[in-house]
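Thread: Newbie trying to understand structure tokens

Hi all, I'm a second-year student working on a class project, and my supervisor (Dr. K.) asked me to get a predicted structure for one chain before our next meeting. I've only ever worked with sequences, so writing a 3D structure as a token string is new to me. If someone could post the tokens and maybe explain what I'm looking at, I'd be very grateful. Here's the chain:
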Amino acid sequence: MSIDMSQPVRVAAVQMDGRVADIGYNLEQARRLSERAFSSGARIVALPEFFTTPVCFDERLNDCALEPGNEAVNLLTELAGRYGGYIGGSMLLRKGADVFNTYVFAQPDGKLFTHDKDIPTMWESAFYTGGHDDGVFKSDIGALGCAVCWELIRTQTVKRLRGRINFAITGSNWWRAAANWPPALLRRLIDVSNDKLAATSTVNFAKLLGVPVIHAGQAGSFDGRFLLFPGSTLSVPYSSSFVGETKIVDSDGTVVAALNRSDGANTVSADLLLQPRPPGRTLDETSFWIPKLSAAHLFFWQQQNYCGGRYYRRQRCQRRTGGYTAK
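---
Reply by user tm_fold:
Sure, no problem. This is what the structure looks like when written as tokens:
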């Protein structure tokens, strides 16, 4: 059944409470929640970034990058075909010796569109490298744009999508400060700033592009590690949670439906006119970041990207030479 894009369309965003490195569990949760969304009338469904496994620094993730034509892609294709709808989400995808954070969008006829996230965020650098495509999907329901997590807060993302899409489908794996690190007051201050940044990222993105945004987030807690020095595997425990902040946002930046982390694994839906309008906000093209980031965000962005990047290159070298073995 075709979609009349001149009328409001029922869309849904899936918020997941996934388990790190447990692909089977996560795919079953993604299936159950997606079926709920489609059965309630949604025609377009967004899954989170890394719906196959949330990502923190955990060496088990070296074994979680999937080959093309995997069970997660098959799930998206199956759901789109069965419900005559559209669905997308991102996963760690192996291409040769490299791994990418690839968003896969499936339409009912089985055709797939993909976008590789441009720059890994902090410890994500340990498990994949950046891509270079424009993230514009010319689907049979028109042009839509894809952005993943911190792509939503970088100027270059708006530049590549601006004036080219009717709506955006996005997802995140955005985490909070370490709950096991002192002092408690500093953690609280970081979380207040970080939660606000996550909550406003989709709203500002919609205003800058003048398009609706369907955004799915990860919720739930995790226990990982935090790398201390580039070139070293020395690390300390990092226990935390994901922010959630699943949202459906209209083209003028109005939030029409939302979930937060306390809602856990859930779905949210709304009827949305998937058409662009003149942007409600002007982009500062001289800045790398759209919002002003805190000193903590900027420090950990640099420090963790250096640490994670060195770790990833070592793993990549082992894959290329045959020295890497799955644990």
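A couple of things are worth pointing out once you decode it. The first helix runs from residue 23 to 39. The domain at 9-321 is CATH 3.60.110.10 (Nitrilase/N-carbamoyl-D-aminoacid amidohydrolase). Feel free to ask follow-ups in this thread.
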